[in-house]
Amino acid sequence: MLRGAFALAIAFRAHDDMLIGARLGSPLVVGYGEGETYLGSDALALAPLTQKIAYLEEGDWVVVTADGAQIYDAGNNPVEREITTSGVSAAAVEKGPYRHFMQKEIFEQPTVVAQTLRSYIRPLEQQVALPQMDFELRDIKRVTIVACGTSYYAGMVAKYWFEQFARVPVDLDFASEFRYREPVLEAGGLALFISQSGETADTLAALRHAKGEGQKIAVVVNVPTSSMAREADLLLPTHAGPEIGVASTKAFSCQLAVLAALAAHLAVVKGRMTRDEEREIVGHLTEIPAALNAALAHDDEIAGMAHLIAPARDVLYLGRGPDYPLALEGALKLKEISYIHAEGYASGEMKHGPIALIDEAVPVIVLAPSGPLFEKTVSNMQEVRARGGKIVLISDAEGIAEAGEGCMATIEMPNVHPLIAPLVYAVPVQLLAYHVACAKGTDVDQPRNLAKSVTVE
Fold this sequence. Notes:
Elements: E1 6-12, E2 15-24, E3 29-32, E4 37-40, H1 43-46, E5 52-55, E6 61-65, E7 68-72, E8 78-79, E9 84-85, H2 101-107, H3 109-118, E10 121-122, E11 127-128, E12 142-147, H4 149-166, E13 170-174, H5 175-178, E14 189-195, H6 201-212, E15 216-221, H7 227-230, E16 234-237, H8 250-269, H9 275-286, H10 288-296, H11 299-309, E17 314-319, H12 323-338, E18 341-346, E19 363-367, H13 374-386, E20 390-395, H14 397-403, E21 409-412, H15 421-440
Parallel strand pairs: 12-13, 12-14, 14-15, 15-16, 17-18, 17-19, 19-20, 20-21
Antiparallel strand pairs: 1-2, 2-6, 3-4, 3-5, 5-9, 6-7, 7-8, 10-11
Helix pairs in contact: 3-8, 3-10, 4-8, 4-12, 8-9, 10-15, 11-15, 12-15
């Protein structure tokens, strides 16, 4: 009788030894313990209690007692669902010495990105390798990337990489818009879905739509037993480990690492990347953990300048090329956890409207590694400075030496290859948002009105 998406756990006053659960559109998991049985939203929620879990499928309902569970399908027929080991430990959901889960997860990034890359790189052969798939990647003519929130910005970066390295055209959509614009999905296309949880309602519905249109399905996901993972033709796990903070940090970095490896492999099978070029790319990918550590070394410095941003009502972020999605991601992080209104813009778009917002009360965060686009970004910075804007420049030593004078603050990043720059430059925008939120006294791990996994449309 119920319509819409739901996951239910129903307790009965007259039957205190029984629960009934049901799911449609939203995830629900049965956890099996010793003389006890649980219902939970996902494996992570049940991690402190049990690692033995079974995922209910669409339309399933279940009768749970201390002795076990009987699952029924949508037609009320008794069924068995596979019991798996989640691999999520209770220790992974503890803060340890950190003040917040978000802080812990930011500092875990060198480790989890290294873990993730181990699944996609063969260091001895200096090759990129992907999991087995039942289709030929070289035959893919077009890639459609679909995601929400931070995962969408990872997809934006991937669009630059796929088109630059593999020369494959890419469409990019918000999952909530994808089905409703009636997209043209040509035969021979790959639909790539990015999600931390693998249960995001909009993204899962978009996946099923693309599958119905005959697309091959690839998913980049942090929960390899999730709904999206189970429905994919190509599963690309991120190995970030449990992410507790609502604002995604380490999952984002691991998504970028996987997408960089996918872009390189696609370029190789398409004949767009030589063996020597692949070796060079693998070399740069293996440098990422050290570069992330170098970026994290500026934590105290970023914490010391957070008081300059905390009083602002509005903050702008600017970036060019693959740094433009990072500007959007930096603005999202600041909005999510500090409640400061923030917007990200492509640097060249400043003079097409947003420059009207600039005054001495609006800090402007500029992400600008040195390189061919740096000079143009410096020009945009001068336009901001001429109107009284206060600039925080995030760049490498060369960029800061050239354009750091007159800035309210500068944050120096290591000098890295453009391919891995988005991962490195994610760190300072995460730390900046974190320390500004701490300065304002907001609830960093559980910001108001937000949920970790959005399982409703």
